[in-house]
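Hi F.,

I've been meaning to write this up properly since the lab meeting, where we talked about keeping a consistent format for the predictions we share between groups. The idea is simple: the sequence comes first, exactly as it goes in, then the structure tokens exactly as they come out, then a line or two of notes. No screenshots and no reformatting. I'm using this chain as the first example so we have something concrete to point to.
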Amino acid sequence: MVYFSRAQFPAGACVGAHSHQDMCEVFFVESGLGTIRIDGTDYPLQQGTCAVVEPGEVHEVVNTGSTDLILTYFGLKVAL
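Output, unedited:
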């Protein structure tokens, strides 16, 4: 495990598109609404949703709701 964290994004906030070549990320939605875009495809985020981003996939997260989007997430290093 590379990290384990919790983030709170206000309404309209966006984490810009990026990728990680040496790890995957797992996101769990504690509360709020949003979208995660993975390699150009949008997936809805709502309470209880879990999303996995594989190494090399370009991804971004947007809070599309009117309240905070709260995520717990972690990164797992992969062997290259």
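Notes:
The beta strands are 3-9, 14-18, 23-31, 34-38, 41-45, 50-53, 59-63, 69-77.
The mean pLDDT is 97.

If this format works for you, I'll send the rest the same way.

G.
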